[in-house]
Amino acid sequence: MTPFYLALALLLLLSLTAGLWRILRGPTPADRMLAAQLFGTTAVAVLLLLAEATDQAAARDVALVFALLAAVTMVAFVRRGWTARPGEPPDDG
User: Of 9, 17, 72, 84, whose CB is crowded by the most CB atoms within 10 A?
Assistant: First the structure.
């Protein structure tokens, strides 16, 4: 089963080329942020596959930390980049 996990990890890493293209070409900051979120999600998936293939529990812990960081990053982006609709007062939180 280990070669299967490693092949899946390689496939996920290859899929990041689409995300890299979106980060480089845009067109909006939101598109770039979603592509960065793809990188975080893929990193978690690759780490979990490698942890299962090599039977290393530490990689699972690192994957959990990456998942938390990706979620916090997305919340920070939304809080910073959210704009009020015209005629609506800004939310100063």
Answer: 9
State pTM to two decimals: 0.73
Does residue 42 belong to any structural domain of this protein?
Answer: yes
Tens-binned pLDDT, residue by residue, of the chain (93 aa): 788 988 898 898 888 888 888 888 878 888 888 888 888 899 899 999 999 999 999 999 999 999 999 889 888 888 877 665 666 665 555
d(CA 31, CA 52): 32
Q: Is residue 93 part of a domain?
A: no
- Which domain, by its residues, includes 29? 2-80
